[in-house]
C-alpha cells in the first residue's frame, strides 16, 4: 500500500513535493506505520528501485542465454520481451524510477548485474581494435547505455511499439556487429 501510494503521488506531484504525511494519508496509514517499514522517503524510493532491478536480475540467467561463447539469440529475445512486458504493465512505475538521476542509477545497477552474472564470460574475452585493447568496463557501459536509452525512449514516447518488436529491434541493433566484435558467436 505504501509503495503504491508513493508511486501515485510521485506521478501526480513529483518526487520532491511528496511528503511522508502525503504517503501516509494516501495509503491510509499513520506515519508510525510508514516508519516501521521505511527509514525515510529516500529509503522507500531505493526499495522501489531495488524491486525494479530485481525484475531484470531474475531473467538474466546466463545458463539460459549463453552456451560456451555462443549467445542464444532466440532465448535473449524471449527474455527481453518478458522484461519489456513487465515494464509495459508497470509503465508508471518505471517512469518514476527512470526520472533524472535515477536513470543513471538504474544503468549503474544493470552494469553491476551484468558484471556479477557474466563475469566468467567477459573475463575470457579480449577485444582489441588495431592493437588497442578495449576495456571491458567500456563495453559494459556501452551495452547498458543502449538498453537504458532505448528503454527510456520506449516508455516516454507515444509509440505503440509492442514489447516483442522492441526486443527484436534492440537485438538487431546490438547483434549485428556489436556482439561479434566482442568475440561472441550469435546463434540465430
Instruction: State the low-pLDDT regions, or none.
Output: none
* Structural class designation: mainly alpha
Mean pLDDT across every amino acid position: 77
Separation of the first and last Cα atoms: 44 Å
Radius of gyration: 19 Å
Shape: elongated
Count up the helices: 11
Total strand segments: 5
Strand coverage percent: 5-15%
Helix/strand order: HHHHHEEHHHEEHHHE
Biggest sheet descriptor: 3 strands, mixed
- Percent range of helical residues: over 70%
**Main sheet strand line-up:** 1-2-5
Describe the fold and architecture.
The chain is mainly α. The chain is built from eleven helices and five strands; from the N terminus they run αααααββαααββαααβ. The chain has helices at residues 2-13, 20-27, 31-37, 41-57, 62-65, 73-89, 91-97, 101-122, 136-156, 163-175, 178-181, and strands at residues 66-67, 70-72, 128-129, 132-133, 185-187. The strands form two sheets. It has a three-stranded mixed β-sheet. It has a two-stranded antiparallel ribbon with strand order 3-4. β1 and β2 form a beta hairpin. α1 crosses α7 (91-97), α6 crosses α10 and α8 (101-122) packs across α9 (136-156). The radius of gyration is 19 Å and the shape is elongated.
